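A quick aside before the break. I want you to see a complete sequence-to-structure record at least once, exactly as it would be stored in a machine-readable document. Don't worry about memorizing anything.
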Amino acid sequence: MSVNSVSRRAFLETATTVTAATMLTGGMSWAAAEHRVEKSEIGVQLYTVRKAMAQDFDGSLAKVAAAGYKNVELAEFSFDGEVKYFNRTPKDVRAALDHDGLDAISTHLNYKFLTPETFPKVLEASHVLGHKYIVCPWIDEEFRKGPDVWKNACDTFNRVGEESRKAGFQFGYHNHWFEFLPVDGKLPYDILLAGCDPKLVKMEMDLCWITAAGADPVKYFERYPGRFPLVHVKDLKSLPHITAGGPQNFGDTTDLTEVGSGIVDWKRIFAHSEQAGIKYYIVEHDHPAQPFESIKTSYDYLVNLRWS
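That is the input. The structure line, written in tokens, reads:
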């Protein structure tokens, strides 16, 4: 081996060592890299500001945009032969959203509207509104009392999931906490994940409610990677006493708070965002004392949150 070859090898080894050391001590290290939620990934569920929107629809949307949000998730769906949100037609809602630079990336649609009569109308409205996702927010107690409710839910979700896919949308399901209470020895959430086609039915995991139920979202991310493109981000001050039935047990009896001021370990959860497949982080608070201050506080926390 020539002297020049030895010198060249020594140079390359030294350069590699120096470069690696620089990366480890600087901001370029993958091990020390900080991750964050991008502003374009943050949304808000308009159920949070529903009372204000009932009084001043346009003004409320302007305040949502002023808080920093670019994405919203629609609520207050109704159907009387025509699809409406907040008692407005999809065309009117879209015009108002466009005025404030807001995108309705998703919508909530009650289980009872997932019928062959109603759902095609929902798909038409979703094209007008520019949705990416159509989400069933929960299954009413009246349906949950029926036989084989979770098997039937899987069948229903797979059906509308296929219809959604053909129309260019992704269907999903949003949990509360009753999905983590055993039914005949099985958790309904597990039944849904096993019985729904992962391509047709994704999950919008409510990170507050799963925490309230005493379950671990990270374990679900690890077991079912890529199935959680949407998450609801809201916080709670303490773990509530969980019971099985009744809408009064959701939101009203839980001490909710703004994101980052409660007990949910957001850094631990979001460290698994890529594994989970999260694309949008949607802020929600069921009963905020000051709705617009609340969504601003939560938005600011998410924008400034960093994790390794």
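Two observations worth writing down. The first helix runs from residue 3 to 25. The radius of gyration is 23 Å. We'll return to this after the break.
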